[in-house]
Amino acid sequence: MNASRPLPTLALAASLALALPASSAPSNGPETEVWIDVATHNQAGMPDMGSMMGGMGSIAAKMMGGGGQGTLAYPDARHPVFTGKFFDVAMRNSLAPGKEAEQQIPAGLGLGASLPLLPPQASRGHDESGISGVPEGEIHLKFYWGCGSEVRAGQPREMHLRAKDGKFEFSGDPMQGRYVPDRGVDPDPSYVLWPNPKARSRAPANASLVGQHRITGPGVPESLKFDLQPSADFMPKIALTQSGDLASGVTLGWQPVDRAKAYFLHGLSMQGKTIVIWSSAEVPDAGQGVADFLTGAQVERWLKEKVLLSPSTTSCTIPKGIFADPASGQASPGILGMIAYGPETHIAWPPKPADPKQPWDPEWNVRVRTKSTAGALLGMDMSGMDGMDPGDATAPPGQEPKKPEDSTTKKLLKGLLRNL
Predict the structure, then answer these.
(1) Which of 143, 364, 382, 411 is disulfide-compatible with 157, CB 3.0–4.6 A?
(2) For residue 336, which of 401, 395, 380 has the smallest C-alpha distance?
(3) pLDDT tens digits for 117-171?
(4) What are 339's strand-pairing partners?
(5) φ, ψ for residue 109 (rounded to 5)?
(6) How far is 203 from 136, CA to CA, in rounded Å?
(7) Is the Cα dihedral 98, 104, 107, 113 positive or negative?
(8) Pair 139, 161: CB distance under 8 Å
């Protein structure tokens, strides 16, 4: 099969730890709606990059759509880059759109008595990292799936991509991916947010969201106060380990994560112009879009379909040799992502009546989503990285950090991602 059209949504961006902007959340609910995303991230074998925000950290944050100036910026919890605890707050109050508000928070959060909620700054567009247009070139993709030391029958699926004249031509057997409705917030001036330029300090390692929260401001209902329970708190960090080697099979292990409903892992490696993608799903076409916040219903459905690993799972082996360069037989270092899906909390006032026939017109509602994620480098000894001097990643005052020159393949990948 051959076609000439933009690349279908393979969600390769998630595999590369890059993210695309989210779609706007529906606004046809109560007059006042609050969205809180809560994430814990562990970059296994890496130092806490928060202290390196002036150099490598700033570049990585820009790539992820977060704080490009070395500080937190909405929406950091969607796809965290650094080890730590992250949360985002967005409120849309149709009674006074875009008016600054204040959220009183529990002392256990460690960020003072309250957080200011401010409207978003005007967008300055995406940083294209010096790339103009789509670079011409070719990429060969191989898809593997499932836990186990042996490659299963029917694998890999293969797809060939070619970029020419700003368009993509593809042939082979592309992965379709599962549809994951985007329920994030793409804020416009009617929203107010945290973090923001006025307040964007990182939550400390012992931070907790448990306790009473109250939001006040012009037009905000007096009743907008709510208690968050432990089910809506930061999840524990994923303690991810790996043993073995890529040539004979890497076994990934972790301790059970409290409140996790399911797990999903995905890996990627570049071998010249060949991209190898693997997921822990027992079925093909998982799609890397799965690696995001999911509803309880989505988790249950994909557990039954064996897309996700059960919460009792504590290990998964990557098939041997899939990340080895066919030409040299040597293992090619790759990247790994893991997600533990947490509970989702909904609070409304007044509460929904038990009788479905009784009228219900809530003044406000709050949605809290939770997850814990981890990232790691496959096939590379990172044991010495914990002591890395953050100063090595920063440029002299007044100078931009020097960026390594991208290969043609990496430039092509960036072009593909821009057109997903």
Answers:
(1) 143
(2) 380
(3) 999 987 544 444 444 455 667 888 899 999 999 999 999 999 888 777 767 777 7
(4) 264, 373
(5) -75, -20
(6) 43
(7) positive
(8) yes
Adjacent-strand bridge partners of 279: 145, 266
Rg (CA), the chain: 22
Q: Provide the residue count of the chain.
A: 420
- pLDDT per residue over 192-231, tens digit each? 999 999 988 889 999 999 999 999 999 999 999 999 999 9
Q: CB count, 10 Å around CB of 215?
A: 24
CB 64 within 8 Å of CB 19: yes
Reported for 171-175, long-range contacts at CB under 8 A and 24+ positions apart, including other chains, are: 171/1, 171/2, 172/1, 172/141, 174/8, 174/10, 175/10, 175/143, 175/277, 175/284, 175/285, 175/286, 175/287
Element (H, E) at 266: strand 262-271
Q: What are phi and psi of 184, to 5 degrees?
A: -80, 180
Distance of alpha carbon 415 from alpha carbon 225, whole angstroms: 45
